[in-house]
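Whiteboard transcription, Tuesday session. T.W. wrote the structure tokens on the left side:
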């Protein structure tokens, strides 16, 4: 009896359980999303995931991908670090914003990428 309780769930049951915990894949769209215009120097080869018009993010990380022509896209978890430097310019306060991006490859499957984003992203950056 104890051995049957310790066995892992079959893959089909595990996917069914996680399907309730993840957003619907049909509601996710990928766009080249630049909220800061020309000030945001994120590489244009990446597309950011939008869920119902909002950025698909969790704990400061968001989902992005590099699109491929054969529909085998590469998915990444991307973390954006923002640094604000306060200075004076002609005796007036001025803020300088600096952005740094760090991405971790999570595979070619959108479902796996969503699981990593929402539940295991701390392992994505080592």
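and on the right, the sequence the group agreed on:
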């Amino acid at each position: 009896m104890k051995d049957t309780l310790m066995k892992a769930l079959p893959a089909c049951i595990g996917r069914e359980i996680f399907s309730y915990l993840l957003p619907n894949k049909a509601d996710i769209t990928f766009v080249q999303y630049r909220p800061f215009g020309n000030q945001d120097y994120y590489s244009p080869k990446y597309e950011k995931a939008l869920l119902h018009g909002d950025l698909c993010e969790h704990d400061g990380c968001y989902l992005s991908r590099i699109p491929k022509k054969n529909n085998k896209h590469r998915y990444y978890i991307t973390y954006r670090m923002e640094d604000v430097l306060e200075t004076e310019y002609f005796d007036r306060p001025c803020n300088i914003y600096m952005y740094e991006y760090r991405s971790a490859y999570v595979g070619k499957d959108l479902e796996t990428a969503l699981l990593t984003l929402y539940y295991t992203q701390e392992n994505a950056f080592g």
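Someone added at the bottom: Confidence is low (pLDDT under 50) at residues 1-6.
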